[in-house]
Amino acid sequence: SYYSLYLYYFIHSTRKNTMTLDQLKMLTKIVENGSVLAAAKALYRTQPTVSVAIKKLEEELNVTILARDQYRASLTPEGEKLYQKAKVILRHAEGLENLAHMMAVGNEPEIRIAIEVSCPMPLVLKIMKKCEKQFPHTQFNLMVENVSGAMERLIENDVDIAICPWLEENQKLESFVFANAKLINVVSPEFPLASYQKEIYLEDLSEYVQVIVRDSSRNPSEKSFGVLEGGRHWLVNNQFTKKEIILAGMGWGRLHHHLIDNELKEGRLIPLMIKNYQNTVPIEMRVVRKLDQPIGPIASKVWNNFQKISM
Predict the structure, then answer these.
(1) Rounded to 5 degrees, what are φ and ψ at 282?
(2) Which DSSP string do the residues of 235-255 spell out, in sequence order?
(3) Phi and psi (nearest 5°) for 145?
(4) Which range (95-104, 182-191, 231-240, 284-293) has the least confidence?
(5) Pair type for strands 280-290 and 173-187
(6) Under 8 Å between Cβ of 87 and 157
(7) Is the model's pLDDT at 64 over the cut of 60?
(8) In the prediction, which pLDDT does 270 show?
(9) Which residues contact 221 (CB under 8 A, 6 or more apart)?
(10) b/e string for 32-57 if b means 16 or more Cβ within 10 A?
(11) Over the stretch 166-180, which tens digit does the pLDDT of each residue have?
């Protein structure tokens, strides 16, 4: 099992010529970055240093890890198994270091929270205002992300807590529902099809600009959410720019209802109803944390504050 391998590593870690965490980090970086050179740059090491470390690891384990007959670094079948287990060892080692650090310093000096832009910010700030009063000596870093960016930040340990759309189940995460939001198709009254008397079909929109917010994650999903294939697209990096473009009558798209409530009431934006297209999209927002990541006393209280307001 993963845990037996992990135990084996620590039992034998004092022996000479035994694999090290440093070697396992190099292995994972090679796989993640696609080459020894890219891994060396990511680790701020020289290419020969990384190459020698992996070669020694292969000799110590008597296993060929990398297939060297290809341009890009690729794993042998045995290397793939070792890589998967190496990730578990590194995750446990990181958790151990974090736990030790928390025990040493007591309350965390910093709490990092990633927030997907579709989350109603006034509700978030209501809780953060309370947290600021409770923990004046803790620095709170809020990172606003688009689409799957907040979840990626959490998965990659860049933040302690994420508030983001819940798109699929993940057994490695703990979460609870925080708020329900919705996206709605809208246009300005100035948009050419705003007063169109007939039913609007997707093909009617193919010559007009669909404004799309770019996913802020480093590894965005290949799935497209409501993007018109073959149509004209403008990409922006936030909802507020998208809103201004649509208000100017220069395009159409889905916007979060809580961001355009006043514009809808005032008639400056109107719903765009498209045949055979999901014109309103409900979004379940959750507060999320990783199960295998130790959480400090302040982060735990922040988590509880969010949980209380969601009940």
Answers:
(1) -75, 145
(2) EESSHHHHHHHHHTTS-BEEE
(3) -125, 165
(4) 95-104
(5) antiparallel
(6) no
(7) yes
(8) 94
(9) 148, 215
(10) ebebbebbbeebebeeeebbebbeeb
(11) 888 888 999 999 988
**In angstroms, what is the C-alpha Rg of the chain?**
24
Number of Cβ within 10 Å of residue 111's Cβ equals 24
Alpha-carbon dihedral sign for residues 72, 78, 84, 89: negative
Count the neighbouring beta carbons within 10 Å of the beta carbon of residue 251.
21
What are the start-end ranges of the H helices in the chain?
Answer: 2-11, 21-33, 36-43, 47-61, 77-105, 121-134, 149-155, 239-247, 261-266, 297-310
